[in-house]
Specification:
About 80% of the residues lie in helices and about 0% in strands. By secondary structure, it is mainly α. The mean pLDDT is about 85.
C-alpha cells in the first residue's frame, strides 16, 4: 500500500510541475477570464496528495521522536514542517478559489509559490515511501 501511495504522490508532483510550466502556453492573453479547468480538476488530486503527505510525514515524525528531543532526524522535522506549511497555504488558497470569484493578485502569487514548492515536497515524500518499500 505504501508503495502505491508513494507512486501516487510522485505522479501528482510531476503532473503539477509540468502543468505549472505549461500553463502560460495555453493561458488566455487577457486576464478578464480566469478559467483553468485543468487546475480545477488537479486541485482535487493535489488536496488528496497533501493529506497523504501529511499522514506520512506525521507518522514518520512520531516514530522518530526520542525522549525529550523533537526528532532523531532533522530531515523528519523539516519535511513534516514543510508539509504542514504547504498544506496550510494550499488549502487556504483552494478554499478561496472555491468561492468562484476571480482570484486576487495575492491569491495568484500564492498559487505560484504553492505550485513551485509542491512538486519538491510531495515528490520527496513519494520517493521516500517508494524507497522504504523497495
Amino acid at each position: 500500500m505504501n508503495r502505491l501511495l508513494g507512486w501516487y504522490l510522485l505522479v501528482v508532483a510531476v503532473a503539477v510541475g509540468i502543468l505549472f510550466v505549461a500553463t502560460p502556453l495555453y493561458m488566455p492573453v487577457d486576464d478578464s477570464e480566469y478559467v483553468y479547468p485543468v487546475w480545477e480538476i488537479m486541485n482535487w488530486f493535489m488536496g488528496a496528495a497533501l493529506l497523504i503527505a501529511l499522514w506520512v510525514t506525521a507518522s514518520s515524525w512520531r516514530a522518530s521522536k526520542i525522549g525529550d528531543q523533537c526528532c532523531s532526524s532533522s530531515c523528519d522535522c523539516l519535511l513534516f514542517g514543510a508539509t504542514i506549511t504547504l498544506a496550510l497555504l494550499y488549502f487556504h488558497n483552494w478554499f478561496a478559489t472555491l468561492r468562484f470569484n476571480p482570484p486576487s493578485d495575492y491569491e495568484l502569487m500564492l498559487w505560484s509559490l504553492i505550485d513551485t514548492v509542491f512538486p519538491v515536497i510531495v515528490g520527496a515524500i513519494g520517493l521516500q515511501l517508494i524507497k522504504k518499500t523497495a
